[in-house]
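Input sequence (383 aa), recorded before submission:
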Amino acid sequence: MKAIVNGRILLPDTEIQGKALLFGKKIIGIVDEAAAREQADEIIDAQGLYVAPGLVDTHIHGYQGADVSDGDPEGVRRMAKGLLENGVTSFLPTTLTVEWGMLEKICDQLRTLRKESRVDDFIGAEILGMHMEGPFINPSKKGAQNENYILKPDAEKVLPLADIIRVITCAPEMEGGDEFVSTLKQNTDICISIGHTGANYDQACAAFHLGCTRCTHTFNAMTALMHRDPGVVGAALTNDNVYCELIPDTFHVNKALFPLMHRMKGDHLVLITDALRSAGMPDGEYENGGQVFVLKGIECRLLDGTIAGSVLRFNHGVRNLRDHAHIPMHLAVNAASLNAAASAGVDRFKGSLTPGKDADIILMDDACEVHKTIVRGVCKYEK
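Predicted structure, token format:
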């Protein structure tokens, strides 16, 4: 048993000091520091840092030159290792709209990698499954997705892959969309997310009623909030049961909207990075699902100017939400941990420092820079 002392412990509803966090592979509980020093075999002095739950990124395509859609297991391993320095202890590798045969191949690879990521000597964040973003999307809202590989909604293609897919993004207004959503809702545990969609307000509300529970990178690649037709944005923001993803890089969504999103969504606000292979890399040209894009600063764009994904580091996203939504640290962390885990159906064992959950823990400073990352009780990164 181990104990972390002298830290500011972040719980879902508060921050506490003067206590210790006890853990093994699972969170054991919070006790007085004196008791922890007597019981624990190893004492970790947090030296005043935040003691927070590990971050859960449910929408990330790539990092440090690797991309999930490459179909290269070594690249995913490189991603998993690199994400530790950002406080990510678990994630959903996210595919782009690529050829269906490649998506099936990636599913096979991620089944193996998921098991691999759960052993103690795997130096990387745990793989929880995958987020399949497309190919069942609307060509009119494809964004940076490759239109050549877009397919009509087809649940029969997805059902054999339901063991590895945790989240799927689709456009429910497309032909066959209602049946797609209903079939997956009734026969799988996949969390269905509306995204890259041209649905109007009524169509979006109908999709939520059928079983969609998430909104992919809210505001981006969907119908906007208008006073006569509130669109997908209006439907998602006003439905208390819908989780709304937010890319908090201050580019995809203006920082002035962060307070609004937090007030409206509360524990259903989910931070994501939507990071591409260019994250953690220098400015320049990169490839994204068969298309070239350019990174300049925090902006990723296709050659025609279309906005692509981000280069956001997840811990910096937490900082951006805290600072621009003007909320306490524990609420900002919730959006990247507990809320995110709940949106993907894994909050039974991830997302908070609740006894019985996996001991996924990070130590970070006031600037949200990560000093230590612990995955399932094992320290896998130290600054």
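Checked by second reader. The first strand starts at residue 2 and ends at 5.
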